[in-house]
Amino acid sequence: MSITFAPAAGLSHEALEEGAVFAPRFDEKGLVTAIAVEASSGAVLMVAHMNAEALARTLETGEAHYYSRSRGKIWRKGETSGEIQKLVEIRADCDQDALLVVVEQTGRGGACHTGRKTCFYRRVEVAEAAATLVPIGEPRLFDPSDVYGAS
After folding, report:
1. Cβ–Cβ under 8 Å, residues 94 and 13
2. pLDDT score recorded for residue 151
């Protein structure tokens, strides 16, 4: 079975925002922003992108698949690291141009390729008109060099 999606271009504003038709608004590159959140805690784990095939694979398999812009291909989250994201649900935002991918993070619990639970492990601070990144204390759950090899 291959899941397909209605074209957003054919829907009225009312149908897009209030209707039952799932019609993701993929951008000019065929991508939609996907924000992965942990079902148990609500923590934002990562932001990625999906094309229609990655979205369909996610819905068909129950495991998160994304589209890598840098590699130009679909990847299953955890295919190398073992940090698979089991799908709980997907929510579309009001105009269907972003998706909230609610997951159960498996493995050691690290969604980020740096080995941390979340990709959002630093906060922006401003001092003397300069913005810097400051770690929030998110520990590494695995060593990325052991998982992905030396960079």
Report:
1. no
2. 58
